[in-house]
Structures are given as C-alpha cells and as structure tokens.
UniProtKB/TrEMBL annotation:
One of its GO terms (molecular function) is nucleotide binding. SUPFAM superfamilies: Glyceraldehyde-3-phosphate dehydrogenase-like, C-terminal domain, NAD(P)-binding Rossmann-fold domains. It holds the Pfam family GFO_IDH_MocA. Keywords: Oxidoreductase. Residues 5-124 form the Gfo/Idh/MocA-like oxidoreductase N-terminal domain. Residues 133-252 form the GFO/IDH/MocA-like oxidoreductase domain. It comes from Paenibacillus algorifonticola. It comes from the Bacteria. This is Predicted dehydrogenase.
Length: 332
C-alpha cells in the first residue's frame, strides 16, 4: 500500500465536490486518486476542476481499479446499499454518506457484506470528528452543567423550490428526516452515550414534493426520562443549533453540524449565571473524518464510529418515519 491511502469517489455529487474532496486534499494520510460518473464527460470535467488524476465513465471501472483503497459513496440514498456491497466485494474500505441506507435492515446487510470482505464501513457524519464534541462530552462528564435534563437541536434549510432535487423523490430516500433530521438524532445518541427507548414525530408531507416529509419535529425518549426535542426541514430558514440543558447550566452550540469558518465552531457554557465561550480549534471536519478512517485502516484498529453505530441510528430513523406516517408513539 502506498504512503497515502488512495480514495475513489463514486459519483459527482455536490457534497463530494464542495466538501469531502477538498477535505481529502488537505489530508496528509489520504489522496483522491479517481472519480467515476455514469457520464464520462462529467467525470472528466470534475476531475480537472478538482485536480483528480483519473476519471472513469462507470462505477464498475472504478471498483475494478486495484490501486484504490477506499471508496466514498455520495450517491442518492437508495443506491447506498447496492454500491457499498459491490465496493466491499471489490475489497475496498467504504465511507458512505448519511443516512447509511433506507432502513436498519439494509444497513445490517451492508455491514455484513463489509465484515465478510474484511473491510471497514463507516457512515459520513463528519461533524462528530470535530474535537469540540470531545470537549462537550468532557464538560458533561465533569459536571459543568450538572445533571443532563435534555437536549434540543435542529437542522433546517430551504430548497423546496428545486422540485427535481433527489431529496424530493420518496423512492430514492428523500425527506428531511433522512437528509438532516439524522444529525440531531445522531448527536443526542453520541452525547448521551445511550440508545432511545421511544420516539414521537409529527411531519409535514408535501404532495408537490412526492409526499416526502418536508418538515418534522419530534421527541426522542432516552433512559432516565431524558429526551431530545428536535426539528428538521427542507422548507424553512437555515439553522443548525444544539443545546444541552443541565440542572445547573447550559451548553450551547450555535452551529452544531457545519463549521465553515473558525467562528462557526464556537460553543458556550452557562454555569452559575455566567456565560463563557469555550475555545475550540478550527479544523476541517471532513479531513479529520478521513484521517480517522485512514488510521483505522493502516493501524488495524476498530473505527470509533463503525457500521454497528450506523445500524443503531437507522433504527431510530425507521421509528421516526413510522411515527410520522402512523401518528403514533413508537417504542424501540
């Protein structure tokens, strides 16, 4: 294996071009060696724009490239399972966009394929690789805000005018819970270190957008009567805050999931009536994510966030979608 792990990108999705590939370019452990598209011209143009040496006109050709170590999958949600399983069969490690699959059952099939092939499979929740989340966990563990009483979070944006967008195709895994609601759910599980017991979700489904959930709000119940209250949407103004409420204080994360600038990574702690800014380093979370995966591969270590975590997150999303459709509380 070469000094740097060689990555192949399956598809020319916006998230790949805008964030993941630039993050990989900053890495000392990884490099983007190839990109594939079913449109050969598109692959070539993207490769030229982003300084990628090789472009393929099919995903199969990319998977057949023996020099590629890791495959990144930013395809529409309904294609994640197919291409992750094919990548595993080709002996490639896999970073797959969130949500990992359309259901927990699909995610488990992907995990089994990766396990049988002896490759790593991880879900691309880049935010959790930012060191501020370790800081938040330490603050909670050290009692900076007392006992945790609840978490509140949101992730919304407005793209509703683009009705041809893949986010608005129900059969393709469209909808706000899949696209952005997965973040608050994932973050609450991460910070509380436990799994939910029940969920109740209300959603706005839009006939103009193939009946996907355009907005959703929910209550995720954890052990000890601690809950996450959240909302998500693709039909409202942009925001992505997170707040951990304690018996004696509050941790505020104004921009919980995206950190494009140094200021956007800021967190605040209120304790004893005083609100203080907590210093955190400015890093590229996409680079940190890739480097973590590289170290796990080269050092033979388990991923901090492996396929099992993705399956558990999908179980919660499954329950949220069921709750929203059936108008009922769902016990996990």
């Amino acid at each position: 294996m070469s000094k740097k792990l060689k990555w192949g990108i399956v598809g020319c999705a916006g998230i790949a071009k805008r964030a993941v590939i630039p993050g990989l370019h900053l890495s000392e452990l990884n490099e983007v060696a190839a990109i594939a598209s079913r449109d050969g011209d598109k692959a070539k143009q993207t490769a030229e724009q982003l300084q990628i040496s090789t472009a393929y006109d099919s995903y199969e050709a990319l998977l057949a490239d023996s020099s590629i170590d890791v495959i990144y999958i930013p395809l529409p949600n309904h294609l994640h399972k197919e291409w992750a399983i094919k990548a595993a069969a080709a002996g490639k490690h896999i970073l797959c966009e969130k949500p990992l699959a359309l259901t927990a059952h699909e995610a488990a099939e992907m995990a089994e394929a990766a396990d049988q092939a002896g490759v790593l499979l991880s879900e691309a929740f880049m935010y959790r690789y930012h060191p501020r989340y370790e800081t938040i966990k330490d603050l909670i563990a050290n009692g900076a805000i007392g006992e945790v009483r609840g978490i509140r979070s949101a992730f919304t944006f407005n793209n509703a005018g683009d009705t041809a967008n893949v986010r608005y195709r129900k059969a393709w895994g469209g909808g706000s819970l899949y696209d952005v609601g997965c973040y608050p759910i994932n973050a609450a599980r991460l910070l509380l270190g436990k799994e939910p017991e029940a969920v109740t979700v209300n959603a706005q489904f839009s006939p103009e957008h193939d009946d996907v959930d355009m907005m959703a709000s929910g209550l995720i119940e954890f052990e000890g009567n601690v809950s996450l209250t959240f909302d998500c949407g693709m039909w409202s103004a942009f925001r992505n805050p997170l707040e951990v409420l304690g018996s004696d204080g509050i941790i505020e994360v104004p921009s919980a999931f995206v950190t494009p600038t140094p200021e956007s990574g800021t967190i605040f702690v209120t304790s004893g009536g005083e609100r203080k800014e907590v210093e955190v380093p400015y890093v590229n979370a996409y680079t940190e994510q890739a480097d973590h995966i590289a170290r796990a591969i080269t050092e033979g270590k388990a991923l901090t966030f492996g396929a099992a975590d993705a399956i558990r997150n999908m179980k919660v999303i499954d329950a949220c979608l069921l709750s929203a459709r059936e108008h009922q509380r769902v016990i996990l």
